[in-house]
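Why should sequence recovery work at all? Because a backbone constrains its sequence more than one might expect. Tight turns favour small or flexible residues, buried strands favour hydrophobic ones, and helices have their own preferences. The token representation captures these environments compactly. In the example below, the structure is given first.
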């Protein structure tokens, strides 16, 4: 892909216990400012692919490029441009307090102490973390830990953000706030993003592109959320959920009521209300 910020082709990862994960099929690419969701069943290889983008797998063959570099070998060259949150957030929260954890990624970026403090304060407020700032990340609840890790990845304002199951364990307000922050970072700075999730209802309003990874590690399709969520047999075979709106649009079409795929309930309601009143 021209101008891709991240690309993966024919990835094969051999984990230390001998388990081998092969990701084939379509090439995986993320364009500049593109927001991509990677969907697939448990064990299909989503985290393996995302960890490869973050330079966190050893025993790898195949092509992995992020900003033109191999993240496994040249991570220092891309460190300032990429941010990531792992599925197992515990593994990445290493500072003694939440405040130090959030400030950690800002070190070495030429920011004054005041600028760094302001950015930490602002992101903490967005994720409602203020009351936790002096706590040890290790003793936080699961959702609190994930929010600290997400805040730590966003505070550095990366050009590419890699998020493995970012919504897992978050309450509704936190999910909304995260979706809003991700949209803002994209609109304001053109941030590109790759995320994996099993919670698909957020996606039509959040990403440009969806990949479906089959159960055997084959990348089966790359298309818009609207197009992919219309591919019911492929999604069922891949054990991928469909957003409630896509269900409703599909059920209406089976009853002879054609409605264009729409990204949110308000617009679908407008379209249906207009017809009912007609
Ligand atoms: N550290 C590891 N050591 C050995 N095998 C692993 C390791 N991590 C993952 N695997 C194996 O690799 C395969 C792909 O796992 P991966 O974590 O990439 O799947 P996933 O799509 O992210 O699944 P989930 O939806 O459950 O997060 C699975 O068979 C898994 O058991
Ligand atoms: Mg995973």
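From this structural description, the recovered sequence reads:
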């Amino acid at each position: 892909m021209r101008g891709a910020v991240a690309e993966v082709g024919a990835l094969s990862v051999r984990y230390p216990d001998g388990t081998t994960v092969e990701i084939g099929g379509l090439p995986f690419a993320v364009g500049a400012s593109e927001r991509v969701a990677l969907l697939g069943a448990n064990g299909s290889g989503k985290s393996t692919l995302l960890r490869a983008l973050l330079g966190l797998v050893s025993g790898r063959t195949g092509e992995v490029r992020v900003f033109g570099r191999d993240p496994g070998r040249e991570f220092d060259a891309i460190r300032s441009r990429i941010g990531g949150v792992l599925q197992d957030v515990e593994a990445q929260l290493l500072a003694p307090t939440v405040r130090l954890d959030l400030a950690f990624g800002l070190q070495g970026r030429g920011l004054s102490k005041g600028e760094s403090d302001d950015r930490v304060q602002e992101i903490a407020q967005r994720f409602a973390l203020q009351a936790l700032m002096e706590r040890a990340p290790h003793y936080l609840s699961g959702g609190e830990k994930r929010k600290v890790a997400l805040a730590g990845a966003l505070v550095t304002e990366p050009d590419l953000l890699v998020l493995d199951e970012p919504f897992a364990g978050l309450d509704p307000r936190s999910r909304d706030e995260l979706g809003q922050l991700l949209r803002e970072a994209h609109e304001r700075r053109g941030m590109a993003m790759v995320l994996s999730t099993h919670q698909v209802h957020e996606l039509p309003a959040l990403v440009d592109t969806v990949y479906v990874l089959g159960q055997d590690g084959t990348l089966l399709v790359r298309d818009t959320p609207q197009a992919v969520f219309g591919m019911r047999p492929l999604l069922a075979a891949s054990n991928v959920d469909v957003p409630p709106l896509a269900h409703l649009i599909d059920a209406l079409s089976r009853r002879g009521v054609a409605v264009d795929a729409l990204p949110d309930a308000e617009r679908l309601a407008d379209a249906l209300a207009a017809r009912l009143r007609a």
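A few observations help interpret the result. The chain has two domains: 4-236, 243-278.
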